[in-house]
Design a protein that fits this description.
Belongs to the bactofilin family. It is built from one helix and 16 strands. It is mainly beta. Strands 5, 6, 7, 8, 9, 10, 11, 12, 13, 14, 15 and 16 form a twelve-stranded parallel beta sheet that branches. It has a two-stranded antiparallel ribbon with strand order 1-2. A two-stranded antiparallel ribbon has the order 3-4. The model is unreliable at about 1-35 and about 145-165 (pLDDT under 50).
């Protein structure tokens, strides 16, 4: 790995990054750190269609479609916009979002506008932020396959319930 120093010298050394500071040296083992995945939609970019990703996304441009980021963060930046539904762990809006927003944490920042449905466990609106629509309870999204599998386990081939009944005499 590389050593980075204040005078911008770079040297190679054993999977370790070292940054010199005036107080003390800071050493970080890069092999132990998870790399953050961030997708950036540029200001001059317009995307029509759904986006599914495994990482964070920052939207400076326009998306006309649904965005699914699972357990990650969707950030609608200043002048950015999404027309469609958003599903993520955290949604930060400083641009415009029109649609259903489903996340554990939704925050509308100073220049943000959410027009639609908000489904959040934690919902905050900063001064200057705008929310037009309705707020609904947050329900954690579950895998449809696991629901389907459970329903097949509860019913036997004859269509009867498999529950055991105890009869006391």
């Amino acid at each position: 790995m590389a050593l980075f120093k204040r005078n911008n010298e770079i040297t190679q050394e054993n999977n370790t990054t070292k940054a010199d500071s005036t107080d003390k040296d800071t050493e970080v083992n890069i092999a132990d750190k998870a790399v953050k995945k961030v997708t950036i939609i540029g200001a001059d970019c317009v995307i029509q269609g759904d986006i599914k990703l495994d990482g964070n996304i920052e939207v400076y441009g326009k998306i006309k479609g649904n965005v699914t980021s699972g357990t990650f963060k969707v950030s609608v930046m200043n002048n950015g916009s999404i027309e469609g539904d958003v599903i993520a762990e955290h949604v930060s809006i400083n641009g415009r979002l029109a649609g259903v927003c489903h996340a554990r944490n939704i925050e509308i920042l100073q220049k943000g506008v959410l027009n639609g449905v908000c489904r959040a466990e934690v919902f905050s609106i900063n001064t200057g932020g705008v929310f037009v629509g309705q707020s609904e309870p947050y329900v954690k999204k579950t895998n449809e396959l696991s629901k389907e599998k459970k329903s097949h386990q509860d019913i036997n081939p004859a269509g009867e319930n498999n529950e055991m009944k105890v009869i006391k005499k």
